[in-house]
Amino acid sequence: MSTIDHAGTYRLGSREVRRLGYGAMQLAGPGVFGPPPDREAALAVLREALLLGVDHIDTADFYGPYITNGLIREALHPYPEDLTIVTKIGARRDDKANWLLADSQQELEQAVHDNLRNLGLAQLDVVNLRAMFDVHGPAKGSIARQVEVLAGLRERGLLRHVGLSNVTMAQVEEAQRIVPIACVQNMYNLAHRQDDAMIDALARQGVAYVPFFPLGGFSPLQSSALSALARRLAATPMQVAIAWLLQRSPNILLIPGTKSLTHLRENLASASLVLDEEALAALESIGR
Q1: Which segments of 10-143 does DSSP mark as H helices, in order?
Q2: pTM of the predicted model as reported, rounded to 2 decimal places
């Protein structure tokens, strides 16, 4: 058994994937814009991820833009049959690196075709609709129009499964009345616990929940309790944060990202880290 297998598996759409995957966002340049400073290092990270057992990669054409998908194709195409690539649409970048809404029918359809071309695929495994009412987090509003576009693209065979990102539970339920939802991807970590009820509800339905920013993302979580616990366990704070998420609920799939081979190996080694009751209690105090 490889290290990553200790985390187990969970269903993502029609496939069973390992619960520790890889997020490609950090492979783009600073601010998720432009090319990476070291292209060969980025390619090496992708190849190493698969060698270590990763079978679930998260990406988007608006990372770069068009950078991470190109790297994935260069490093891994033709893809292993068991590799699931999840992409996102609904946003775009301008030439000043701003994040802009791109959710008209034409923009969504074009984004799917762009992802197919740039990844070198005839059909996308999972496409997440990134709701952009508020770039900083979920906000109220109907997403029925956008989900109907994705449902139509699914019927045409351009994608297998529809997912959601940056959404509320009400929006998940609205989308589920239109098309089956394979996964929900929101910000969630030790200190950002607004989705606790959603995770439990999705677990009861057998739907995967994919948290991003396990340590806070662009504003990393600073916690003396987390740092102290990591030292006691001879682990990194990121490893502890990942281990906590793995133990939080069986339907959680993780996509920690990095452009470092060292950090990639450390992140995937989190699968072997088991948190005892004392450790879990200390971590719960962060959430409170």
Answers
A1: 39-51, 67-76, 105-119
A2: 0.96
